[in-house]
Design a protein that fits this description.
It is built from four helices and five strands, in the order E-H-E-H-E-H-E-H-E. The chain has 139 residues and is an alpha/beta fold.
């Protein structure tokens, strides 16, 4: 059985780009992992988070991508460490990130996952267009 392709949820646009590319890469199963950081006063077992709402949003995202994917919600104190533990060995992690000269959150997360021994592929998504300044002449 081929290894599973893991897509960590980052933001809606970037996460939507990854499953579209995954359709071409994945011979096996695809999983969308979404880690939510739970503040310390709240319990990890019963956080005050609407899990049904989160799951519906992810299902809509997966449906829009046109790829069948398993959805997994993870509640943790540290997002990076939770993802590193949740990704099974031998799986490919596919992440979309913006193209910037500075290290983006996606690139930093990829570095952490690689340090934990995971195979990570970055899909460079075009940066949003820069806003242009429009000047007007005084009346």
């Amino acid at each position: 059985m081929p290894a599973e392709l893991i897509i960590p949820y980052t933001d809606p646009d970037l996460t939507l780009a990854a499953p579209k590319a995954a359709g071409e890469l994945a011979a096996g199963a695809v999983a969308l992992l979404d880690v939510h950081v739970v503040p310390t006063p709240l319990s990890l077992e019963n956080p005050d988070i609407d899990e049904e709402y989160l799951r519906e949003k992810l299902e809509q995202l997966v449906a829009a991508s046109g790829v069948r994917a398993r959805i997994e919600l993870i509640f943790a104190r540290d997002r990076r460490q939770a993802l590193a533990r949740a990704v099974p060995r031998g799986c490919l992690v596919l992440m979309a990130t913006r193209n910037h000269w500075w290290p983006t959150a996606g690139k930093r997360l990829a570095r952490v996952l690689r340090r934990h021994g995971h195979n990570v592929a970055l899909l460079i998504h075009p940066a949003p267009r820069q806003a242009t300044m429009v000047t007007s002449t005084p009346c």
